[in-house]
Amino acid sequence: MASVVSELEGTLLNDPDPFSYFMLVAFEASGMVRFGLLLLLWPVIWLLNAFGKEDVGLKVMTFVAMAAVPESEIRSVARAVLPKFFMDDLNMSAWRVLSLHGKRVVVTKMPRVMVERFAKEHLQADEVIGSELIVNRFGYATGLTKGDNKYFVDNVKKFFDGEQPTLGLRRPSSSSLVLSLCKEELHPPFTNLQEHDNQHHLFPHPVIFHDGRLVKRPTPSTALLILLWIPFGVILAIIRITIGIVFPLQMMPYVSRIFGGKIIVKGKPPRSPSGGSTGLLFVCTHRTLMDPVILSTVLGRRIPALTYSISRLSEILSPIPTVRLTRVREVDAQKIKQKLSKGDLIVCPEGTTCREPFLLRFSPLFAELTDRIVPVAMNYRVGFFHATTARGWKGMDPIFFFMNPRPIYEVTFLNQLPVEATCSAGKSPYDVANYVQRILAATLGFECTNFTRKDKYRVLAGNDGTVSYTSLLDQIRKVVSTFKPFIQF
């Protein structure tokens, strides 16, 4: 069986410098202080690399980003945050070469814990070889690692059980001894393998779920820009939220432009049914917590939104009424019917947000309760910060959304479903839900999936996504306990 050993940095990934990935670990696993400290040390790390001391620079990055951080938190970032940024930087030509081989080994300069999840789940690597992070008996990373060139070579030999790997993929400036074990070596660009490209069209497993607040990979220049923007972003977010609470919804599309926001409306918004009939049910894709608020702003009236697991702070800040569901089917059905009898209602049947161009499975409950269904395709664009989280505090979601310099929302109204496409004509709720999912996905250029909210939270947070509502004092204690090891460090 043909086998391949490939370096990650500068080969499978276009960028040979792992600095930005350590910055992600610093930001997501620890916070802004460590993020800023690592950026402050970047000139020192750059000089070390320039003078051929890459190993020393790597140890500095590892120590600053990970020392006194719980190993479980580092693993969480490696599972939920890093794969998205690895995938964005993936060299597809190198991946196609890798995919042609049966046995695949990925070698990385970074600690193995940072890379293993991505390489095995998305690149289908059989083994990942990197330095091992040293963890103390309390479960905290020391910031130190073990593993040198000899350690890497021994592990490759052990994996192949004495056989010589067929092909080694490396960056041109690599000094790794591992690739010398291979029968043949190649380095990017892989311009002489186009005949294989034409015959082999495999793609790596896509990243559908990912977490973290940062939209862009924090290279030194991007990280500096983010740090400089944050004070202004916080002030801007406070102003925008205050305006949203104080001003009438009808004025928001005009006022938001003054502070950098923009709403793009496509299609024709429907009129509310005349008196005596039940309200319209707006069925929306779920991109952020702001979806119902933006839709109400476009329609110019405060339409109640059905919610599952949003924070109390988000409910307090919401300029529209919220209707909390229980996830008990009979109870929720009765509550939705009651609200529809009084007027329009907004529902996001995915049950949770998804950042990538995919739609999660639609719950069929909405289709059982009314035939006045208006599909609405929602999408958004932001520059610095994501407005959703699975691992963090959801109460910060609207604040991070409004911290972006120029948040843009797109709202596309589709025609109300004809009666013959609803349950009133004998369609099953599942058929109606799947049909609405398909037409919304086609409108946005997204793909339909069968994943659910539970699938998302199991991947990103290791739970089922249920929010536990604790007192303010308990939340403060949780924050303090999170930062306790950093204070000691």
Automatic annotation (TrEMBL):
InterPro entries tied to this protein: HAD_RAM2/GPAT1-8, Plipid/glycerol_acylTrfase
UniProt subcellular location: Membrane
Biological processes annotated in GO: phospholipid biosynthetic process
Keyword 4Fe-4S applies: no
SMART domains assigned: PlsC
Gene Ontology molecular function: glycerol-3-phosphate 2-O-acyltransferase activity
Membrane topology: Multi-pass membrane protein
The keyword Transcription regulation is assigned to this record: no
An annotated GO cellular component: membrane
Keywords: Acyltransferase, Lipid biosynthesis, Lipid metabolism, Membrane, Phospholipid biosynthesis, Phospholipid metabolism, Transferase, Transmembrane, Transmembrane helix
Residue span, Phospholipid/glycerol acyltransferase domain: 280-381
Transmembrane segments: 20-48, 223-247
Family the entry assigns: Belongs to the GPAT/DAPAT family.
Protein name (record): Phospholipid/glycerol acyltransferase domain-containing protein
Originating species: Eucalyptus globulus (Tasmanian blue gum)
